[in-house]
Amino acid sequence: MRNLYSVFLFCYFLTLSTIGHGQDKKDIIKNYLLVNFASLNLSATDANQFTITSYGTLKNSDYLIAYLQQEVGGVKIANTAATVLLKNNVVTSFKHTFVKNIYGNISSSNASLTAAQSARKAISELGLSNTAGVSVVNYATKSDLKPSELETSNFEAPLNYFKNSTGTFVLSYEIIVKDPASHWWQTKINASNGTLLEKSDLMISCNFDIPVVTDEKPVNQRSHKNHSHSYEKDNLFFNFKKDSKNVIVLDSKSNAALSATDGSKYNAFPLGVETPNHGSRTMINNPARIGTQKTGSAVPSPEGWHEFGGKIESKTVGNNVQSYEDGGKINGPATEDSFAAPSSIGTLSFDYPLDLGKAPIAYQKAAIVNLFVWNNYMHDVSYAYGFDETNGNFQEGDYDRFAGPTSATINDWDGDEVQAEAQDGSGLNNANFGTLIDGFEPTMQMFLWGASPFGEFLDVIPPSATELRKSYASVRFPFVAIPREGDPSIDSRLVLVEDDGTPWVSTNSTPPGTPAQSPDPRDGCTAYTAAGAVAVKGKIAVIIRGNCPFVDKITIAQDNGAIGVIIINNAPNAGPVNGGGVPYKTITIPTVGLSFEDGKILLDKMATEPVFGRLVDRGPLANLINRDGDLDQGIIAHEYGHGISTRLVGGRNRFDCLLSQAYEEQMGEGWSDFFGLIMTQKINDTPEQKRGIGTYVQFQGIEGPGIRPSPYSTDMSINDYTYADIANPAISVPHGVGFVWSTMIWDMYWAFIGKYGFDPDIYYGTGGNNMAIQLVMDGLKLITCGNVGFVEGRNSIIQADAVLYGGANECLIRAVFARRGVGALAQQGTSERRNDQVEDFTINVPLIGVCGNLTLLDNTEILFSIYPNPMSSELFIRSNKNAGKAVVSIFDMNGRQLIESKMDLGFQSRVDTGNLVQGVYIVTIKLEDGTSYSQKLIKK
Asked: Which of 435, 486, 505, 784 has a CA-to-CA distance to 465 between 20 and 30 Å?
C-alpha cells in the first residue's frame, strides 16, 4: 500500500532532497567558522573539530538546521552542541556551546576497558547488586541486553570525552542502564579506571511533585503573591474570534485521495476532552483520516493506525504505538491478551465498557484503547507541525519519507514506535516517558493514582481542650491506608518528636553523602534522643517539615514505635503538606499532613497540656477507588510531549539536552504542559479561564487547583508568576520551572488568538492558535542544546517567527514575554542554574528599538509606554495619542494602593516614585471611559 503514496510524496520531499544533495554542508559550516571563529569565541583550530549529528527542517522548507557536536579524533565531546541555520547553503545563524581550544583540553585518549567491562562497572556503581530485571542498551543492535549476556554478545557503547572535576576531558563510555524501578540511567564511565563520572535519569517522571517531593524540594509554598486586589483584563488576550462550530475538528472535510480509511472505531475520549470530569467518551470513526489536508502536506498515518510491518494488526498495535497493560511490571506485553483486541470479531471496532465506580482492573481494555487513541492523536497532530520522520518522530517504519541530508551517528531511524504501558504496576501516582536517540524504542508508563489525598483525616478528641476538638483538613500520604470509621482506630496522644540535631546525610546530594543541615530537632530527620524515643512509642508522632525526605521521617518514627505520623508544614499559607518518596523499607503506619496554621494551633497547646488525636477516614468510598492515568488525556499528552521536546531540542540524535540533573533552567515540563493544554482545549475556553493539570487523578473538580503552583491563566490575579520566581526554593526543579515557562507560552498562545482568531481545526488550521503551536514547535528545533533557558527559548520563538512569518509578530512575542519578566534586558545566566537570571519587563530592544517602548497594547496597537523599568525615583508614561484624563495608581504586591495620581495623559506624563522602597509593584492606568491597563514594575 505504501507505493500508493509515492507519487504524492515525491513533490513533498523534492525540495528537501535538493537541499540535501547540494554543496557539502560540513564544508559550508567549516568555512563559516574559519571566517567567524573570533566573534564566536572559538579558535581557528576549532573550525574542523566537529561532526554533524543530524539535520532538521522547519515549516519553511527553504531552511535547513544542522545539529553539531564537537569532536576530537572522531570522539565526541560530551555536553557540547551547536545549532546552525542555513538558507540556500548560506549560514544565517550559528549558536553553540563549544569549548574553545578543545584539542588542548584533552587529557587522555586511550581506553583501558572494553565497553562490556564499563557496562559492568556502571551497574556496580549504580548499586544494582540484584541484577534481576536490569538491562543495558546495546548500540550495535538497538536492543537491551541482560548483564549475563554482555561478554557473549557484540556489545557496543559510544565513547566520548567528558569534562571531569579538574576541568580536563577524559575518555569515557556512555552506558545506558535500565533498572526495574523505571529508571533509565545514562552513565559516563571513565574508560581508564571504571569510575562513575556522571549519571542522569532519562526516564522523565511526571509525578507532578506528588509522590517524590521531599523537604529539600518543597512545593506549593507561595504566600508572597496572594493579591487582595484585582487586575484589569489585559488586551493582549481579548477580542479573539472563534469559528461557529462547537467542537475541535477531528476529521471533517474528508479527502479520500489523501486519507487513510480502515474502518476503525474507538470508544474513547475525543480531542478537547481532558478527563472523565470534563466530558464523555464517544465513538470515534476513522480518526487517522485527517480531514483538512493542505496541498503538498504528508498524511501523518497514511495507512491508518493499525498498519505494522506491512500488515494490518487486529489489536492495539500500529506504526505509531503499541498499547498494552503491564500490571506485572515486566516492561512489555506478557501475552497477546495484554493488548486490546477488537470488541467485535472481524472488525477494527474497539468498544469496551467504562464503569468508573469499579476498580480500574474492571475497565482495563477501555483504558488500553484510550491510551492507544491518544498516543496516535499526539503522533498525528505533532506530525502536522513538523515532528515528522526527518525530525525524529516515533514510528516503526518511516514509509520512505525521510528527507534531507542523512549525515548522522545512527542512520537507521526505523523501529521506534511508542511502547505505551497502561496500568503499569511498577509505580503509583505517576507517569513517565523515556526515549533515546532516533531508532530506539521509547516507553510511556501510565500508572494508577491512589486514594484521594484530600480530606479531614485528623480528629482532635477528648480529653483535649474543647476549643481544639474538631476534624482538621489534611492530606494523606500514599503508603498506608488510614482506618475507615468503624475499623480499629488509631487514637493516641500527639507527641512532638525530638531528634539529636546532627546533620542529615543526603543520598541525593552532590557528591553523594554530603551532610545537609538539620538543625531543628523537631524535623525528625536523624536518630531520636533517648527521651524522644521513649516519648513517641505507642503515640502519634508530630514532625515539622525540614530538610530530609518524608520517607526518612516516617521510617524513623516507625522504628521508634510510633503508631501514626502527622507532618506539619513549615511555611505559612502553604496548605497541608503532602508528598511521598520511595521507601527504603516497608512503611506500616499511616501519615497525614497539616497546614502550618493548623499545626501551630496544636503545637501551641501541646506545649502546655496533652492533646489527643485520631486518624480516621470517613470520606466517600468512591475516594478510595484508584484513578487511572490512562483516562487523563492531559497527562498522556504531557508524557508524549516529553518525547517531542527530547527529540527536537538538539536534533533527533541527542537525548541529553533537557536533563534537569544537568540543566536546572530547562523547560521540558513546561512544553509538556503546553501540549496537554492545547490538546484538551475546548472551543469555548477563554484566556483567563483556570486550567489545572492533573485535577482528575487528584480527585479535584474541573476548576480545582491541579498539581501546579497555580492554575494556568492569562489573568495575573490568578497566575502572576514571572521569570524571577524560578529562583524561589518553593518552585521545584523541573516541574515548577517548567510551569513558569508554560505560563508564558500559554500567554503567547492566547495573544495570537487575540490577534488572528481561533481555528477549530487543530491539525491544519490557520488561526492564531495554529500559528502559536507552530512557533513553539519550530522554536524547539532552534534552541541550542546545553543553553536551554527562558531567554534562549524566547529568542528561538522570535527566530522561528522571522523564518516563518517574516518577523511580523516579534513585537507581540516580546510583549508577552516581557509581561512575565523575560524582557529585552533579561539575562539568562547559565542554564545549569535557575537562580542566576535577571528579570526585566522591557519590550524595546536597546539601541535598535524594534518595538519602541511597547508595554501596553489595545487590539495590538501601542497605546502607552511606561519607562524606565526598573524605575528609580520617577516613572514616565508616554501616550501615542491624547488619552485624556486618567487615574494612575501604584499598588504593592499585597494589593495596597501606595500612589494615586490624577492627570491628563498627553504625549508624556511623570509620576514621582521616590518614596517607594525597593521591590515589585503594579501600575494601573484607568481612563475616563472605564478602560484599565496594568503592568508590573520593579523599583531599584
From this structure: 486
